[in-house]
Specification:
alpha+beta; four-stranded mixed beta sheet; 392 residues; binds flavin-adenine dinucleotide
Length: 392
């Protein structure tokens, strides 16, 4: 089935330009022709094949934000939002998050803090999809509270020794490059004493503890990682020693913005699929669409998603102007993580029993949405960030 009709924002929006319209068109074609026909197989396999990511790299879709000299398109946060929306529209959350972790959650650590030598070494591989990235901050005992991480990195001559474990790491099983947070100063309290490292697959002492089975996002591989005296070259320190917490917080902004793009597109697509369904499905002699309660619930959800989407676009525009948008991005993460779940619940309800059957997109979308109010900043944590900024 072709994608439900969703306006091709760009032409009618002052926030987007011709380059974003072109990017959206390329992505939409790629998703319709090369993702949707194959993605059920990836869901069963628990992984998006690396050939698919390399194909995206060859189309210029993995370096939207990075300079052209490294194989990127040189766009700003608006380009990331277009990417997030279009992969979100695929209806395969596992595929979407595999891509977005690589492009907008992990590799920004290199782009923002990497030395010229590190960027020159890794960035062309990343934009081409030859090396896939993961970001490893969360641990079994530290998720929302990043300051609580316990993985340590001790300097020994020309390398660091990393010890500890990481939990819930997206792309964790199959990545080639990991951007890892560890404590370099265990005596420093609070946000101090954390550093970021580039850890390559195959580093002695570094291994995938186990692949984690999830209720949703099946085609996204998720892992627990183990560092057992992992020997990381000192030149792989990313950014300034003991300043890693601030790098993580900075990069969370982009992560949360693209999650806003992904979730609003997923919600919009679910509403479009449900609209198709209720216009043809009959109960009590008439299409479900003739029931006022169904029409009005869908209409209100459409309004809420439209408002959320415009906030995502506005924040992307603020970011592109170099303006502070932590409050808006925190609002987006809190609002969209909850809204996408509300939309999926109602869209599932209006699909009736079919929403519980594996062969429907809505069944997968309901499962995939659940994590959005938790991962990348739980709703409650994000609301605290908003609240802090309401009183100043
Ligand atoms: C599928 C998946 C993929 C992920 N991918 C990655 C990844 O690639 N890299 C990575 O580093 N991490 C990743 N994560 C981790 C994710 O970001 C964390 O799960 C998230 O930050 C929440 O941490 P936690 O699970 O430890 O929950 P906790 O921090 O233990 O919190 C549990 C719950 O308590 C509530 N809560 C927490 N703090 C507060 C508060 N201050 N006030 C009120 N309520 C609060 C919230 O409801 C929260 O959901 C992933 C997680 C999942 C499930």
């Amino acid at each position: 089935m072709n994608s439900p009709a969703i306006p091709n924002l760009g032409a009618d929006s002052p926030i987007f330009g011709e380059e974003h319209v072109m990017l959206r068109d390329t992505l939409r074609r790629f998703v319709d022709e090369e993702v949707k026909p194959q993605a059920d197989k990836w869901e069963e396999a628990g992984q998006v094949p690396h050939e698919v990511l390399r194909r995206m790299g060859s189309l210029g879709l993995l370096g939207v934000r990075y300079p052209e000299r490294y194989g990127g398109a040189g766009l700003d946060a608006r380009g990331s939002v277009v990417l997030a929306e279009e992969v979100g529209r695929s209806t395969y959350g596992g595929f979407a998050i595999t891509v977005l972790v690589h492009t907008d959650m992990a590799s920004p650590h290199l782009a923002n803090a990497g030395s010229p030598a590190q960027i020159a070494k890794y960035m062309p591989e990343i934009t081409a999809g030859r090396k896939i990235c993961a970001v490893a901050v969360t641990e079994p005992d530290a998720g929302s509270d990043v300051k609580g991480i316990r993985t340590t990195a001790r300097r020994e001559g020309d390398h660091y020794r990393l010890n500890g474990s990481k939990m819930f790491i997206t792309n964790g099983v199959h990545a080639d490059l990991y951007f890892v947070a560890a404590k370099t100063d265990t005596s420093a309290g609070g946000s101090r004493g954390i550093s970021m490292f580039i850890v390559e697959k195959g580093t002695p002492g570094f291994s995938v503890g186990r692949a984690l089975k999830k209720s949703g996002w099946w085609s996204s591989d998720t892992a627990e990682l183990v560092f057992d005296d992992a020997r990381v070259p000192a030149e792989n320190l990313l950014g300034e020693e003991n300043r890693g917490f601030y790098a993580v917080m900075k990069n969370f902004q982009n992560e949360r913005l693209v999650l806003g793009g992904q979730t609003t597109a997923e919600a919009e697509t679910a509403i479009a699929l449900t609209l198709q369904y209720v216009m043809t499905r009959k109960a009590f002699g008439e299409p479900l669409w003739t029931k006022q309660v169904i029409r009005q619930r869908l209409a209100m959800l459409a309004a809420e998603v439209e408002a959320a989407k415009r906030l995502v676009h506005h924040a992307a525009w603020l970011d592109a102007q170099g303006r502070d948008c932590v409050k808006e991005v925190s609002m987006i993460k809190a609002l969209c993580g909850e809204l996408v779940n509300k939309v999926m619940y109602t869209c599932g309800q209006f699909h009736g029993g079919m929403s519980y059957i594996r062969e429907t997109a809505i069944e997968r979308m309901v499962r995939d949405a659940r994590v959005h109010s938790i991962g990348g900043g739980a709703t409650e944590v994000m609301l605290e960030e908003v609240a802090k900024r309401m009183t100043v």
